[in-house]
Amino acid sequence: MPVPDRWHKSSYSSFGDGDSCVEIADSPTRISIRDSKDPTAGALAFPPAAFTRFLDALKGNAPLA
Fold first, then answer.
1. What's the start-to-end Cα distance of the chain, in Å?
2. Read out DSSP for the chain?
3. Burial tier of 34 (Cβ tally within 10 Å: 0-12, 13-18, 19+)
4. pLDDT tens across 4-59, in order?
5. What is the pTM (predicted TM-score) of this model?
């Protein structure tokens, strides 16, 4: 799997423990997530629809199932 070249970190991570955050990179076919403390450790990749369902569940807008 090719490594995305444009990673984004939340602006909230600039306060306090700024290196303890996840970064995301998006493309039309996948959303990739990695640990900002160790970006060379690899990334998880999800189809955009699955990532959207995951975020909705975290926000309490949808079940995880």
1. 27
2. -PPPS--EE-GGGGSSSTTS-EEEEE-SS-EEEEETT-GGG--EEE-HHHHHHHHHHHTTSS---
3. buried
4. 678 988 776 666 655 678 899 998 899 999 988 888 899 999 999 999 988 888 88
5. 0.70
